């Protein structure tokens, strides 16, 4: 009997010892998604009785990509500090002394063992996500995040039942590494500023235009850095773009607000790819025909003066900014309108090239519009543009140069608006990136009358659709100067031919298949409406040929 009592107390002592952690320790956590290990690296936590550091192997080995983030948590004080490495020599930090204390949990009558420790469950809901926290009271407070730091030692966190962060190893260490304290002198900032600094350091931003005025004013002159065409409604300048890795996503954005113009206008952010931007700038300034002189071995366009490549095709709203004083009950106008679109497919036409970039807004107002525009380059492991991918502008009815073509007459002609091009090499999986908007702002104009767009490749119909937008009423708060009618609708509410006041028009991609080397034609046919008095209809259309250059020994049949 004495032996049995002795064995019982020995077991009690063993369990008690197993449940106690003598700090400092290093805890490794692994991520699991739907029961399978995640490809993200493990979380490392260094903890003692006073604080714990949340970091990772790559950060500890100085191999992590910027920006890096680490957390120093002091559970007993309910305080944590986020420390970001924005670049090799630039750090920022922000401290929060309230969030930990505000955490609320529902304690669930469930237990389980993790790494030999008896754990209890606490549950909470964050941003509509159900979070289960498994913790043990083992003598220290630590966790793989800020969540649950007051509970004890968190060994597992489960989000929505399918994403798990679980402790896989606990190691005794002599002390917390000194290198973790090296980042503490980081510049302290408020939490919003900290988040903004970290966000902006995650991508590369290329400014194209910064608060420029796009207006109608013959007195405004060009300068050394900016060419003004069409009495100021078109701005063009030269810019050198960085090399864009093939595993990146590319976005373009435009911000616009009215400085006087009250109407909805067609706007385009565009580039003119050229091997001689200075010569093209001179030709544009002289209002003469220009050739882009793009020396490539893939494609020749029969009309190189039209190779203007649209990045964003947008429509300004009715007077946003300037006319925000036109108050209406329960309507609070936006300050400006923001257009942003992904243009990853255009990387082959832009990466590392010296190009001409331009913005145009067709308007007749001296105040016009204030415009800013940018490109942003984002790493993306899930994206990989195939080698030999190309993108060439084939046609664009928005006249930038002095081509003199009557596009709308061509669009409704028997053969449609035809563009001839020659492929020096076969093109696999060819697509046409097509943008179209119809205009004519009276009741019988093409702006308000659905019209089919039909496209032909080498005389054969490849695609036909009727572009139309029915969601224009969603953008009412961007249209303070929009006219209001007796039927209770505002002008900006009406459905239109593939656009609304205050939005960008999405391109569509038309599959063309594999194209052989040699001459081809693309034709666009639209039944453009007839003029009525001084009113006329028109269409803005553009097309970019995309695909992968075929290897010589693998020509399409």
UniProtKB/TrEMBL annotation:
Record SMART domains: N-glycanase_N
Entry keywords, A to Z: Disulfide bond, Signal
InterPro entries in the cross-refs: Cu2_ascorb_mOase-like_C (IPR014784), PHM/PNGase_F_dom_sf (IPR008977), PngaseF_C (IPR015197), PngaseF_N (IPR015196), PngaseF_N_sf (IPR043022)
Molecular functions (GO terms): oxidoreductase activity, acting on paired donors, with incorporation or reduction of molecular oxygen, reduced ascorbate as one donor, and incorporation of one atom of oxygen
Protein name in UniProt: Peptide-N-glycosidase
The organism's place on the tree of life at top rank: Bacteria
Organism whose genome encodes this protein: Flavobacterium silvaticum
Domain Peptide-N-glycosidase F N-terminal: 205-377
First and last residue of the signal peptide: 1-20
């Amino acid at each position: 009997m004495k032996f049995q009592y002795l064995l019982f107390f020995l077991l009690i002592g063993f369990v008690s010892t197993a449940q106690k952690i003598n700090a400092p320790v290093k805890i490794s956590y692994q991520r699991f998604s739907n029961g399978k290990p995640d490809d993200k690296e493990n979380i490392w936590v260094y903890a003692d009785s006073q604080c714990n550091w949340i970091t990772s192997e790559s950060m500890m080995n100085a191999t992590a990509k910027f920006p890096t983030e680490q957390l120093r948590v002091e559970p007993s004080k309910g305080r944590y500090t986020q420390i970001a490495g924005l670049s090799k020599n630039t750090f920022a930090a922000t401290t929060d002394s309230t969030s930990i204390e505000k955490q609320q949990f529902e304690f669930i009558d469930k237990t389980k063992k993790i790494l030999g420790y008896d754990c209890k469950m606490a549950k909470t809901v964050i941003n509509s996500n159900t979070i289960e926290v498994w913790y043990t009271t083992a003598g220290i407070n630590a966790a793989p995040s800020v969540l649950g730091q007051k509970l004890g030692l968190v060994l597992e966190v489960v989000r929505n039942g399918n994403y798990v962060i679980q402790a896989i190893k606990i190691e005794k260490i002599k002390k917390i590494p000194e290198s973790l304290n090296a980042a503490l002198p980081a510049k302290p900032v408020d939490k919003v500023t900290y988040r903004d600094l970290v966000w902006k350091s995650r991508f590369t931003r290329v400014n194209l235009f910064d608060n420029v005025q796009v207006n109608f004013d013959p007195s405004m002159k060009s300068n050394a850095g900016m060419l003004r065409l069409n009495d100021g409604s078109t701005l063009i300048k030269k810019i050198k773009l960085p090399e864009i890795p093939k595993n990146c996503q590319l976005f373009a954005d435009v911000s616009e607000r009215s400085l006087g113009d009250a109407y909805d206008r067609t706007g385009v952010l565009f580039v003119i790819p050229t091997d001689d931007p200075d010569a093209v700038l001179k030709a544009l300034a002289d209002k003469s025909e220009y050739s882009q002189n793009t020396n490539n071995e893939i494609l020749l366009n029969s009309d190189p003066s039209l190779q203007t490549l649209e990045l964003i095709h947008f429509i300004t709203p009715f007077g946003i900014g300037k006319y925000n004083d036109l108050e209406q009950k329960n309507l609070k106008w936006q300050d400006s309108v923001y257009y942003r679109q992904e243009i990853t497919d255009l990387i082959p036409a832009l990466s590392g090239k010296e190009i001409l970039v331009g913005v145009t807004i067709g308007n007749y107002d001296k105040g016009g519009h204030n415009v800013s525009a940018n490109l942003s380059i984002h790493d993306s492991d899930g994206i990989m543009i195939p080698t030999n991918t190309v993108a060439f502008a084939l046609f664009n009815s928005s006249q930038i140069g002095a081509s003199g073509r009557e596009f709308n007459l061509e669009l409704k002609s028997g053969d449609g608006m035809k563009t001839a091009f020659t492929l020096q090499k076969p093109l696999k999986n060819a697509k046409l990136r097509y943008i179209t908007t119809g205009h004519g702002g009276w009741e019988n104009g093409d702006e308000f009358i659905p019209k089919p767009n039909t496209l032909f490749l080498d005389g054969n119909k490849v695609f036909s659709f009727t572009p139309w937008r029915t969601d224009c009423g969603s953008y009412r708060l961007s249209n303070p100067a929009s006219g209001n009618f007796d039927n209770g609708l505002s002008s900006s509410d009406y459905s239109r031919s593939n656009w609304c006041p205050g939005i960008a028009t999405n391109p569509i991609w038309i599959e063309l298949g594999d194209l052989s080397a040699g001459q081809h034609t693309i034709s666009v046919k639209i039944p453009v409406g007839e003029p009525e008095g001084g009113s006329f209809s028109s269409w803005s259309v553009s097309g970019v040929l995309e695909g992968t250059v075929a290897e010589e020994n693998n020509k399409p049949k």
